[in-house]
Write a structure and sequence with these properties.
Blueprint: H1 2-45, H2 59-71, H3 78-88, H4 113-117, H5 119-122, H6 126-151, H7 160-168, H8 171-179, H9 182-198, H10 202-212, H11 216-231, H12 234-258, H13 262-277, H14 282-287, H15 289-310, H16 318-334, H17 348-356, H18 358-361, H19 365-394, H20 402-405, H21 415-447
Helix pairs in contact: 1-19, 2-3, 6-7, 6-9, 9-10, 10-12, 11-12, 11-16, 15-16, 15-21, 16-17, 16-21, 19-21
């Protein structure tokens, strides 16, 4: 029996490795060999393809950091925005050209202290930054996956390497890696902070969370949940808030010392950037402006209810890790830009939680069907990308059909909603059940 089990395990591992190799080859070829050339062709036709498109999301940080450190320039100025556009689009944008994006596209929209944190890169050429990012960003993603196994208290299985590989070849991550998106760094900081809290290293976690505010739209809801958790037991958890506040205070003091009016400049740039150049949040994109806003309010109320139920739980308990995963999934739905597919990496904790608790989360047939839809929507990107890659090698004419090229991306807008719904049902079942059990145990104790 032991020999049969070992043989079955070996066959299973070989089969999984073969599938991973096939999916990795198909998805990678799809993204770099089919999708990006189409994007490049469209932008070139509009004269919007610059020398720094690869790594273009980090380019504004690198450029403004150099300008601030070496010339005391204003990162939020119109002139700086035009320099950024010249690197990304190949030229500054012109309002008279109707085919051009809005005039403030690609403006620097980060807090000023991000430039100080990026100071080491300012001493390098951007070409060097691109090469270094091509190595370090995948390592950050791989480390983030491992950290979430620790932060969610999931025993590291044999399949952890498969999880790392699948995450690395997922479309949102490939998009983030190619663009050198700051979201990749923020996701790593969030992952590391959660793992640090799970290990009761509150001082380290507070500093990491402060660094994650470089993109506040990604970290704000999680920070609010953690604040509710800390205030439920201030005596043992208060150090987390203290170190977080101290680090933020240092960032702000340095920023105001160098550029006293930076906050108002940043806020103006942020409002202009989000209001004119970015599409609506995902909820409004799919359901319309007013229905999307109503859904956003309902989701925020749902998070308040979950935080109230989970805030007194131990950090590594299934209930509180479920709250963390739900908050991050809802963040993807409410994040200011619906085209920021790279932010979908925040769905990973929810997927890991649902996979680890699949036996308890899928007890009801309706929930099992929902989970089946979720896993199918997740797998679609790899299966469709591999299929499109294979078909394009047989019929090269398919490379020019936008409908075919975009086929693997069709489930991307729906996936955050399905994941959030599955987590929401799991939270309802878990917290409602615990609420029913509490009075029952109390009455039993009183009768005894």
């Amino acid at each position: 029996m032991g020999e049969r089990a070992r043989a079955y395990t070996m066959r299973s591992r070989r089969s999984r490795a073969v599938w991973l190799i096939v999916l990795a080859a198909g998805t990678t070829y799809y993204y770099f060999g089919l999708f990006l050339p189409q994007v490049r062709a469209v932008r070139t036709a509009k004269e919007l393809y610059g020398p720094y498109t690869c790594g273009g999301d980090f380019y504004p940080v690198w450029l403004t950091s150099r300008e601030l450190l070496f010339h005391r320039g204003n990162p939020y100025s119109r002139g700086m925005t035009r320099q950024i556009q010249a690197g990304f689009f190949g030229r500054p944008l012109e309002a008279r050209k109707t085919s051009d994006p809005p005039a403030n596209s690609r403006a620097f929209s980060y807090p000023l202290y991000v430039d100080f944190l990026a100071a080491p890169a300012a001493f390098l050429s951007f070409r060097t930054v691109q090469y270094m990012g091509a190595v370090t960003f995948p390592l950050l993603i791989a480390a983030s996956v491992i950290l979430w196994f620790r932060g969610l208290e999931i025993p590291a299985p044999d399949s952890i390497a498969s999880w790392v590989a699948l995450v690395l070849i997922s479309y949102p991550v490939l998009e983030g890696l190619y663009a050198l998106q700051v979201s990749v760094i923020v996701f790593f900081l969030v992952s590391a902070s959660v793992a640090a809290i799970a290990a009761a290293r509150y001082g380290v976690a507070g500093v990491l969370l402060a660094l994650a505010t470089g993109k506040p739209q990604l970290s704000a809801l999680l920070i609010l949940l953690l604040l509710a958790w800390v205030f439920a037991d201030w005596r043992s958890r208060g150090r987390l808030v203290f170190t977080f506040a101290l680090a933020i205070l240092v960032f702000l003091i340095v920023s105001f010392a160098v550029m006293p009016g930076w906050f108002f400049e940043w806020w103006r740039a942020l409002l202009e950037y989000r209001g004119r150049t970015e599409p609506a949040p995902l909820a409004q994109l799919l359901f319309g402006k007013y229905a999307g806003r109503a859904l956003g309010i309902l989701l925020l109320g749902w998070l308040v209810w979950i935080a109230g139920k989970a805030r007194r739980l131990p950090f590594t308990s299934p209930g509180f890790t479920l709250a963390i995963a739900t908050v991050l999934a809802v963040t993807v739905i409410l994040v200011p830009s619906s085209v920021a597919v790279y932010d979908h990496v925040l769905l990973l904790p929810g997927l890991l939680w649902l996979w680890h608790h699949r036996s308890s989360a899928g007890r009801r047939p309706a929930v099992r069907r929902l989970l089946g839809i979720m896993w199918l929507a997740l797998a679609w990107q790899w299966l469709a990308a591999s299929g499109v890659s294979a078909a394009s090698l047989i019929w090269p004419a398919l490379r020019n059909h936008a409908i075919v090229i975009l086929l693997p991306l069709r489930t991307a807008p729906a996936l955050p909603f399905v994941v959030a719904a599955a987590l929401g049902i799991a939270a309802l079942n878990r917290f409602a059940r615990s609420q029913k059990q509490a009075p029952a145990s109390l009455s039993a104790a009183e009768s005894a």
